[in-house]
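# step 3/5: fold
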Amino acid sequence: MRVMLGTQRMKLRRTARRHPALVAGALFAAIALALLIANGPNVFGQTTVFGVVSGSYFALGAVGLTLVYGVLRLVNFAHGDFLTFGAYMAFVINVTLGLPLIVAVLFAIATTAAVGVGLELLMWRPMRAKRAGMLPLLLVSIGLAFVIRNGIEMVAGTSQRNLRVNVTSTIAFIGLRIGRTELIVVVTAVVVLTLVGLMLRYTSLGKQMRALADNFELAEATGIDTNRIVLATWLLAGGLAGLAGVLYAAAVGTFTPDLGFLLLLSLFAAVILGGIGDAYGALAGGFLLGLIQEWSTLVIDARWKVAVGFAALIVTLVLRPQGIFGRERTL
């Protein structure tokens, strides 16, 4: 009997090592089932809806953040302020000029992507050419975050802003309710993230980005135009950040210049949960973090939901430092 139990334990350990995502999924499903039984289908379902909404803009922001790290090994602390910049660009078009939200969204994506490319050409590329180490790059990204945030405060002030969207209208389905704007946010995020995933896996650009993520020098030696791929990476990361900022502002209803600062650690948490440098992991990590935070409100006060998300992050790092999906150096 003891021999059989020992054999089963060894099999479970091997399974956990070889298939961490499977084990994490089983644990996640067990927690969900326990919360469902304890709180009932309606309360649990409504909380899950809130988690999916939060996870949608977490995932968008996290994918852009991990793309930059995956290709350039740059931990960009200014990424959260890219989200803020996108939200304020949408405000200019949607509220100041009174144009439709879709125009504001496209403008926010384009301008934030342009900022990403501009910073690459003016700052990051010259620093790489001078072989700047990780610490100088990290310090510059932190300084850049303060410059963007304070620049927005100087121009727009510190008061709360609102986009011209309907945040009161709701849609009912299977006994649950979701805001009309929140539903648009979720659908938009899912469609965009699906397209990004398909692009990374099947297009020539995506394959070249993954090649740079695996080995930058080797990719350059094989004839890949690394400068062009790096610019494309910044375009994509900046565009996703701008979109995430607008979606957050639309879903929550209000925003300030601190929007990106408040979201940044959650974006890093989503990236690390899924496996830093892995775009698919960041996508899953974003939705996972959103659900964990919202489900925690069924057990403890909602004020502590962010702390619960980081507790899950700490546990993940202790048990599996490379993240649930565990492929640090790939996209």
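# step 4/5: annotate
Confidence is low (pLDDT under 50) at residues 1-6.
# step 5/5: archive (pending)
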